[in-house]
């Protein structure tokens, strides 16, 4: 009888030493970690890549500003145009030095005030000298901005590869003359030039014409449509502070680009970590593979 008890105790003790019941989960975890290590190391061997955003070294920004008479409205102090000048100037000053900047204004017609250049001071000077004019031709402003991109100087290192381009268009009204803005946005999309629109002003804005108040509300839908068609983004600003924030957000967007980057080291590192954890699990178990 004592011998059978000793045999049972000895058997139970030996089994617990080999595969303790309360640590079975650790054995399976070690196997899972080993398999994960094998998978990640295999992926590392394949040299995977991933698109990541990095600061871009070059590009072209066309700053396109509405100078129609409605920009004289004082719902934004001191008026829409003066506040837009200040915000746009600060925006240009914050653009990376190697970027080309062009300035386009539009009202009844559109004009290239500064062709694409890395002389950002010239762009700021042109913005500060903007003058009001009648009518609003948003479509013509877009077409003229696209024409400005034809004057981008070639990159000496990559003469056959055009740099990425963006149009940043600010307007407070809607098209009253010229070609439709939607058609111009389609042309921008065909040339892979997204348009970032800024609907600027409040619903209560007005100007005085011949002693009478004329309301000049912002047409947000037209600008939203332009951004959607071209693949850009639409913003709204109802104050000078909001306009500054919009320009800052656009600045961070246009200052980066997506490039493929090899992520082999990431997968190899993960595989090594999984392998070490699996080894530690097996050592702690003091057992063979299942």
From TrEMBL:
Keywords, alphabetical: Membrane, Transmembrane, Transmembrane helix
Transmembrane segments annotated in the record for this chain: 267-287
Pfam families: VWA_2
Residue ranges constituting the VWFA domain according to the UniProt record: 60-250
SUPFAM superfamilies, alphabetized: vWA-like (SSF53300)
Stated name of the protein: VWA domain-containing protein
């Amino acid at each position: 009888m004592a011998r059978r008890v000793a045999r049972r105790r000895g058997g139970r003790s030996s089994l617990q030493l080999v595969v303790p019941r309360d640590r079975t989960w650790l054995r399976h975890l070690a196997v899972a970690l080993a398999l994960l290590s094998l998978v990640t190391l295999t992926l590392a061997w394949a040299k995977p890549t991933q698109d990541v955003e990095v600061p871009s070294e070059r590009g072209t920004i066309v700053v396109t500003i509405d100078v129609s008479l409605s920009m004289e409205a004082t719902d934004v102090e001191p008026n829409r145009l003066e506040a837009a000048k200040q915000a746009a100037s600060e925006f240009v000053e914050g653009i990376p030095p190697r970027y080309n900047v062009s300035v386009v204004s539009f009202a009844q017609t559109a004009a290239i005030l500064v062709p694409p250049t890395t002389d950002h001071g010239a762009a700021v000077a042109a913005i500060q000298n903007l003058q009001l004019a009648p009518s609003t031709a948003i479509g013509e402003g877009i077409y003229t901005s696209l024409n400005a991109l034809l004057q981008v100087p070639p990159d000496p290192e990559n003469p056959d590869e055009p740099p990425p381009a963006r149009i940043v268009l600010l307007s407070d009204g809607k098209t009253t003359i010229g070609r439709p803005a939607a058609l111009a946005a389609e042309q921008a999309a065909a040339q892979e030039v997204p348009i970032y629109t800024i609907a600027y002003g409040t619903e209560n804005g007005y100007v005085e014409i011949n002693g009478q108040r004329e309301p000049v509300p912002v047409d947000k839908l037209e600008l939203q449509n332009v951004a959607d068609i071209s693949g850009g983004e639409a913003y709204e600003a109802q104050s000078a502070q909001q306009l500054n924030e919009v320009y800052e957000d656009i600045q961070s967007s246009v200052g980066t680009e997506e490039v493929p980057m090899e992520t082999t080291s990431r997968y190899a590192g993960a595989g090594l970590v999984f392998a070490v954890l699996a080894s530690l699990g097996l050592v702690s178990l003091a057992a063979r593979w299942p």
